[in-house]
Specification:
The protein is mostly helical. It has helices at about 15-40, 45-60, 60-65, 70-90, and strands at about 5, 10. A hairpin with a 6-residue loop joins strand 1 (about 5) and strand 2 (about 10). The protein starts with a strand and ends with a helix.
């Protein structure tokens, strides 16, 4: 699949598309973890909850399914498991 790039004569090949897809999903996951962490610490809970819900909506969207074969509920479960483990590790170190 060739996609015309912004600059004349440049194209985005499959490897480039894969990198872009990975970047979009990675950023979504990092943002989700960031918002969950802020909510747990009581930082601007309403705003961070809204942002977290926006990430969940993206992960459960048709657009996400177009980008990847990852199972949305499984990914969210793994993200929550990661955050829970990180919180528990912090508590042990206190």
């Amino acid at each position: 699949m060739k996609i015309k790039y912004i600059k004349e004569g440049r194209t985005l090949n499959d490897a480039g598309v894969d990198k872009l897809v990975n970047a979009i999903i990675t950023l979504g996951c990092e943002d989700y973890k960031k918002y969950v962490s802020r909510i747990a610490r009581g930082i601007d809970v309403e705003e961070n909850t809204r942002k977290k819900e926006s990430i969940i909506k993206f992960i459960k969207s048709e657009w996400f399914s177009t980008l990847t074969d990852l199972e949305p509920d499984y990914l969210l479960k793994m993200l929550d498991k990661y955050k829970l483990a990180k919180v528990n590790n912090r508590r042990r170190n206190i």
